[in-house]
Inverse folding.
């Protein structure tokens, strides 16, 4: 075991190890160097010049200083990860009794609300540009995404065995290999039937036949589905980037807005935890708040008053 060096020497040895032994990329080394240097500057203020004199409160103090400087939780987490890796190296190389950064975590990120389209945007998005087979297929995909709140992977993996047009049910296997049944709306059923009539394998449809395919009869990739959905939306004048998960968000927020039944939305989406579904209550509240601000005579602030 080597004698304890200064913090600067220990940092230099770590970067050398990461470059020569671990053979990390120049990009990663640059981040390591910058993040560790930031921590070393903090240590100079705290008068901790030897790696054995560093304590957890030094790391916490540094993390708090990063937050005060306005760094995002993601950036702070990366800084902490760099320093944590450095201490892991020092523990093995110089015999640190513990990793001072092990118990320090970055601030929690604010949970971003999913974007959803309103009913008018959905109706506009689902207009078929033409009667071509590809446009018929794309509208059927979009209708099914919105009608059933499917995940992209669930839509991509659909075969005819998963769809019961008579009972108007679709069976999908989602995260955690959990299977659920979802009702299909009448408009989506009609769109699906129009596509199946134009399906490249229409003359020989089997239960194993992929529902959404290329003109050659091969299952569409997830990337192709994303691109075709965005193309459909742009063709119909939707200015925002439309992706499959936005259709799922729209499905959930519209169902919740109309029914108020959070448990039902949880079942339809296939969420194992109700807390995951609760984010849509915030979407619903945003809608109500905007309506209140626009309609209530006392909601609008008077000019010149806070």
């Amino acid at each position: 075991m080597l004698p304890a060096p200064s913090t600067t020497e220990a940092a230099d040895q770590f970067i050398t190890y990461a470059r020569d032994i671990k053979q990390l990329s120049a990009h990663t080394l640059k981040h390591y160097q910058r993040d560790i240097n930031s921590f070393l500057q903090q240590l100079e203020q705290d008068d901790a010049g030897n790696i054995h004199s560093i304590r957890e409160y030094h790391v916490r103090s540094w993390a708090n200083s990063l937050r005060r400087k306005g760094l995002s939780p993601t950036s702070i987490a990366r800084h902490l990860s760099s320093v944590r890796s450095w201490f892991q190296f020092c523990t093995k190389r110089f015999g640190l009794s513990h990793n001072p950064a092990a118990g320090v975590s970055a601030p929690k990120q604010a949970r971003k609300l999913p974007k959803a389209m309103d009913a008018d945007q959905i109706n506009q998005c689902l207009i078929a540009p033409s009667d071509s087979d590809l446009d018929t297929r794309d509208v059927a995909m979009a209708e099914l995404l919105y009608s059933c709140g499917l995940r992209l992977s669930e839509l991509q993996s659909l075969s005819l065995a998963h769809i019961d047009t008579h009972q108007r049910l679709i069976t999908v296997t989602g995260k955690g290999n959990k299977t659920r049944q979802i009702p299909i709306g009448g408009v989506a059923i009609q769109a699906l039937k129009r596509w199946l009539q134009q399906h490249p394998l229409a003359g020989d449809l089997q239960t194993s036949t992929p529902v959404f395919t290329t003109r050659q009869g091969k299952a569409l990739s997830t990337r192709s589905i994303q691109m075709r959905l965005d193309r459909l939306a742009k063709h119909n004048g939707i200015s925002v980037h439309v992706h499959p998960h936005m259709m799922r968000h729209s499905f959930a927020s519209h169902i919740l807005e109309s029914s108020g039944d959070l448990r039902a939305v949880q079942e339809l989406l296939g969420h194992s935890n109700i807390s995951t579904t609760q984010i849509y209550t915030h979407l619903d509240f945003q809608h109500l708040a905007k309506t209140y601000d626009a309609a209530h005579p006392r909601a609008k602030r008077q000019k010149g008053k806070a």
Q: What stands out?
A: The first strand starts at residue 163 and ends at 164.
